[in-house]
Design brief:
Distance between the termini: 35 Å
Radius of gyration: 21 Å
CATH architecture of the largest domain: Alpha-Beta Barrel
Number of strands: 20
Helix content: 25-40%
Number of helices: 12
Strand content: 15-25%
Shape: globular
CATH class of the largest domain: Alpha Beta
Oligomer: single chain
Structural class: alpha/beta
Length: about 450
Amino acid sequence: MRSWRRFGLVAALTGALVVPGQAARALEGRSWITDDQGRALILHGLNTASSAKSASGLPWIGPDDVALERRLLGTDSVRYLIQWKNVEPSPGVYDEEYLDAVAVRLRWYRDQGMHVILDMHQDIYGPAACAGAGNGAPSWATFTDGLACAPQSPWVLTYLQPAVLRAYDHFWNTTGRHPELGERYAAMWRHVADRFRDEPAVLGYDLMNEPFGGTRQFGFFEGPILTPFHQRIIDAIRTVDAANWIFVEPQSLGVNQGAESSLGALDGDRIVLAPHFYPGAVDLGGSYSGLTKLLVQGEFAFWKHNMTKLAATLGRPLWIGEIGAMDMSVPGGPAYTTDWLKMTEDLMIGYAYWSHEGGTGPDTSINPILNGGLTQVGRIMARPRPRAVAGVPTAIKAAPGSLTVSWTASDATGPTDIWFPGTTAPKVVATDPYTWDPATRTLLVWPGPGRDHTVTVT
């Protein structure tokens, strides 16, 4: 969550600015996340949630909150946070009561027809690394060699404390002293996938939130360490689950702000590139205006270019695992939200907004839903959107109150699914037959003859 904004700014500004057309060309020949009907999924949802970083490992939500999210925002997915320390409190011992509690919550999403990406979350390695400042790894998997650690402000600086750096170095086994940690992590993921592979709501697994290389960074981390780590976890999961999608993240430092990634190729099918986007200049300037806005727009350009290029090079679908997190009371907050939404629409990619909590009022909260209604950021996010496309998407043109979706025919068997906000029936112009459900605000466009298809909803 929101990590490496300050550290990554310099890295994000080290290349030349690119024109938008370069990002668009990088998407040619792209692949898509698909469902069991062969439709391209444009996943829109929330991260649930910071409260899952607590000792219990469970978020604050209840079933009514999930239903409200679906109704007010039209979300079709969730990035649901779980933690290694809760899954495996002792080496090789898995907490089935915790996993039972997760299973209950997954059913809430299943009841709403939503896809779940299980995210193995960590920040600052784990709570035992630095006086409870982090989350993720269990204490038995935390080796700091007695080095000093004091939580810092802003919190992200805690990553540079000697104890935290050493804990990561031992986990990645760059010290050569703890190869068992990677083995246990892979076995833990195998257990989780085995447990949830038959849960209809589960679409896939996000292997590690915002990987951080300790004293190894960038090309010294992503290529020789992180890539084979991802492959090990993929291989472990595939021994029990060949069907669900696997979401892999590049390192967070720099890449979250738009720097290039040296993540390498991975073997296997149904793998998604799932970077985050947190422009450092937003935090540095505290606004989205003036010079800060220019810097952030540069980070937009870098991120679009570098991440679409990486997705094309690896031959993987692109999805943003975290994006957002700007207080609406800050100058330019609404405009920033509108701009990152437009970026996802232009690139025809989905996202998971950070996060489903935070803030105290409708015009200051980063939580899109507060006290049963939409906040300011929620009202901006409640835009018409395609959730599933019955073919290969070729264009998504969105604005408040209108949406045009175009695609070419494929072997998809289900309809194109479009959510539309508001209370009045929209006007629809489509090349194919359609049905409108006012209760769920859902337009279903059924596959018709021909190669090219378009629907406009206003």
